[in-house]
Amino acid sequence: MKKIVVHVIPNAHLDPVWLWDFREGLNEGVATCRTVLDLMDANPDLTFIRGEAAIYEHIRRTDPATFARIRRMIRAGRWDAVGGSWIQPDTNLLESETLCRHYDVGLRYFREQLGVRVKCGWQADSFGHTAGLPDVLAAGGIENFAFTRPPQEVFPLKTPAFWWHGRSGARILAYRPPIGWYGCERTEVRPRFDQLVPLARKSRLRNVAMFIGLGNHGGGPSQGLVDDVRAWAKAHPEFEVRFSGLHAFFAALRRELAAPDAPRIDTVRGELNFCMRGCYASVARFKYGYRRAEHELLRAERTTALLQQAGLAPATDLRAAWEAVLFNSFHDILPGSSIERAFDEQIDEVGGVRHTARTTAFRALNHVAGRVRITLPRVGPDLPKAVPFLLWNPHLHPVQTFVELEACLDHRPIWQYQNRVAELPVEVRLGGKPVAHQVIATEHLSFPHLAWRKRVVVPVTLPAAGWNIASLGWVERAARPTHAATATGRGQTIRNDFYTVSAQPGTGGIRIRHRGKDLFGRRGLHLVTVADNWGSWGAMAEEPAGVRLTQTIGRWKISRVAVTESGPLRATLAVQFTTARARVDLQLRLTAGNEDVAIESRAFTDLEAARIKLVLPGARQVECEVPAERVTRQAEGEIPVLRWLRARDGRRGFAVASDVHAAYDLEAGDLRVTLARATRYACDVNLDQMKEWWRPVVDRGELRSRLLLLPAEAAVTTAADVLTQSPLVTQVWANPDGDLPTTGSLARLTPEAVHLLALKPGEAAGTLAVRVKNPTDGVLRPVLTLGRKRYALGAVEPGAVATFIVGRSAKARRVALGA
Fold first, then answer.
1. Shortest CA distance to 157 belongs to which of 171, 137, 178?
2. SS3 for 422?
3. What angle do CA 317, 320, 323 make, to 5 degrees?
4. pLDDT tens digits along 773-818
5. Which pLDDT value is given to residue 750?
6. Which of 56, 79, 383, 600 has its CA 20 to 30 A from that of 373?
7. Cα–Cα distance between 799 and 796 in angstroms, integer?
8. What is the DSSP string of 284-345?
9. Separation in Å, CA 133 to CA 100, 145, 244, 767
10. What is the C-alpha separation between 737 and 759, in angstroms, rounded?
11. Strand 582-591 and strand 570-579: pairing?
């Protein structure tokens, strides 16, 4: 009988941010690798695995000599570069494109800086794994995947090794160690071996893996651990014990599985979840900024890539911004399980990404403004001209929406309308033609008696990847075109052709009627406060009381209601909910002709050990977007969701899109959205409000978010695109000599055909087509690669072909990565 082969895989899990800041974490990466290299010099049979391109890059910049030693150990076959990602991310909470970028950026780094083509993914400590990960791994050329969470008692598997299938047909050989975790204590090796013996003898597989190494704050194998491995191996000659790496282990495992008498292993389809569910909502003050940074960076990159390839703007370099986004998706940053001081700094870094994205897009669109023909209506002598705006649609499909414009109508107040501000006549033009508009409140409260700035909301249809010019001006006897549909408000009710929304002070919920029927029953849209006495990670062992938060500790009442906009294009109902130590202000908006309810939320909380949940009755099952996939869930309990979901209860249903919310749950037929979670920073114990009361509580203060309520069968993916990456509105200048038309389009995407749109008649341009690989999934994101640059290009429908202007001389290649 052949011996059982135990692959002992030394590693040093390192959290670059957790109970410490990024400086301590990154420099520990240097210290750990120097220590491990010295240990490997002293022990010629010792091996080691290390992932995370970000750690390698820090070593390369900080300690080139150590980086050179690592490269030599890699060439010697003893140092196994694994993982393939920039950092070990949380894979439940990040954007699909961010997940793809981890492997695009990371795998390129491993090839170029370490000379390695990584075939083994490695997520030592991430808190569960999205159903879309197999397709992303396979698209990057990764064939194998090792992980340790969720554990066996939470997510049972028949065999430690299993085939993990993705929707597109990807098949990854995955492995979770049957004993232990990714590391070990100093005295744990021999007992772990002893635990492994009976399991290994019962196993269908000859090759088994065991991870060792001091971890979390670096560390790795020690001489004592190495000696313990050798001693146990000497005492158990019936086992073959070898120091190994992930690539060597999976190669042996694949050879075993390819043999004629190979054992059968488990097959898994879908997500590897759940664990650490509290992380879906912890530290929203970071999460919300992070999600907005992802959206703004994606919008800016798509904008600048299209404009640059069309010759309308210079090339931009957003690599540093992307590296910051990737780093901050780390599984103790994005999930909200680090210390407060660390979050203060990571929030600053994410804010820098947002500023970079905005300024990059701003500069690129100003180049467009310098090329587009912008003419303004004639005015009388010494009268101010209208103010022009460039409207840009960053999506590869036309967008019909409402935009807001605000401008000073003269350089000084218009004194003849002093104390008669509402009487000042304004005209809005789109593409040179007057259009319907509605005057709304300005963003400021200064000088309310002076006619100076005006703000309007305007319906627009923007071409795919294209622009149009709008203008706002003071015009006596201005034309006032009307819109085909209306939205109105009166008393405590707003309505359009599809929805009626009303609220009454003293009641507990907002009544929403859709096409004449109550959408949420007699309770309406309402709020509840539930006890959440768990720490940052929630119920770490999936205790039922932490998975389902059912203890209600706060009742909410509507205290104030007001119609703040009454049409004809947009109506807004302001509703204030109050309870003990918390308040939520909701702005519910209806627009003319649009079948949706836009909701803006401001949650103010001084709670402890509690959650505020927005309750939408009538949901027993949801189909929801997760990173690089969509899944269906119906079990009660906390779940992570990306940007949208469809909820159903029999024939009833509705859809929800959100800009930042990630934590939802199903409970007793209700869908509940977490607006705020009041826990403690980096806390792994149940909260006791009687001890250390002075410790800071997470997310005290104001949290802002947006949701969109739609019919169940609505195009919710497109709605989420526009909600999270809205058209850009930039005030520009008159440019009557521009050589481009007032409105134009660079490219568009359809399921049937390739469309190339030249900038000017007779002008030629190159094209690149990227066919979506996965025709069964409608939430795919093709990616444009030009040379060594790669650009995200937004969600598309099944079987779509994307087309982009790339210029005659640009070299392009097809890409498969981009789930």
1. 178
2. helix
3. 130
4. 333 334 444 444 443 444 444 444 444 444 443 333 333 322 222 2
5. 59
6. 383
7. 9
8. HHHHHHHHHHHHHHHHHHHHHHHHHHTTSS-----HHHHHHHHHTTBTTTTTT-S-HHHHHH
9. 9, 10, 25, 30
10. 16
11. antiparallel
Cβ-contact 20, 342 below 8 angstroms: yes
Single-letter amino acid, residue 737: D
Which tens digits make up the pLDDT trace of 313-329?
Answer: 999 999 999 999 999 99
Tokens of 585: 């202000």
Contact partners, residue 275, CB within 8 Å, separation at least 6: 127, 128, 149, 150, 151, 154, 155, 540, 542
Distance of CA 532 to CAs 106, 277, 382, 554, 678, Å?
A: 37, 12, 65, 12, 8
Phi, psi of 616 (to 5 degrees): -120, 100
For residue range 622-643, list pLDDT tens digits in order. Answer: 999 999 999 999 989 999 999 9
Tokens 């006791």 belong to residue? 688
**Could you give the count of Cα atoms lying within 13 Å of 119 in the half-sphere of its Cβ?**
10
DSSP 3-state of 367: helix
With H, G, I as helix, E, B as strand and everything else as coil, classify residue 520. Answer: coil
Contacts for 490 with CB less than 8 Å, ≥ 6 apart: 563, 566
Q: Rounded CA gap, 341 and 22, in Å?
A: 10
CA distances 686 to 145, 337, 341, Å, are: 33, 14, 22
Strands (E) located in 94-220: 120-123, 144-147, 161-165, 171-175, 207-212
647 bridge partner residues:
622, 654
Query: For the chain, how far is it from start to end, CA to CA, in angstroms?
Result: 45
CA 818 to chain centre: 14
SS3 string of 626-640?
A: ECCEEEEECCCEEEE
Q: Nearest-CA neighbor of 797 among 811, 815, 785, 779?
A: 779
Rounded CA separation 22/180 (Å):
28
User: What residues of the chain score a pLDDT lower than 50?
Assistant: 752-819
Q: Strand, coil or helix: what is 469?
A: strand
d(CA 463, CA 535): 48
Q: State which H helix or E strand residue 21 sits in.
A: none
Which has the closest alpha carbon to 398: 96, 712, 730, 750?
Answer: 750
What is the model's pLDDT at position 811?
Answer: 31
Q: Is 72 helix (H, G, I), strand (E, B) or coil?
A: helix
Nearest to 601 by CA among 664, 647, 651, 659: 659
DSSP annotation of 416: G
H helices of 2-52, in order, are: 22-42
| Cβ 802 vs Cβ 784: under 8 Å | yes
Q: Which amino acid is located at 38 in the chain?
A: D
Residue written as token pair 């905005």: 358
Q: What single DSSP character describes residue 98?
A: H
For 491, 583, 586, 709, 712, the CA distances from 560, given in Å and listed in that order, are: 12, 11, 10, 22, 30
Burial (Cβ within 10 Å: 0-12, 13-18, ≥19) of residue 778:
middle
> Where do the H-state alpha helices sit in 711-819?
716-724
User: Is the pTM above the cut of 0.70?
Assistant: yes
Residue with tokens 């990466």: 29
- DSSP, residue by residue, 191-250: HHHHHHHHHHHH-S-SEEEEEE-B-BBS-B--HHHHHHHHHHHHH-TTEEEEE--HHHHH
What whole-number distance in Å separates Cα of residue 437 and Cα of residue 482? Answer: 8
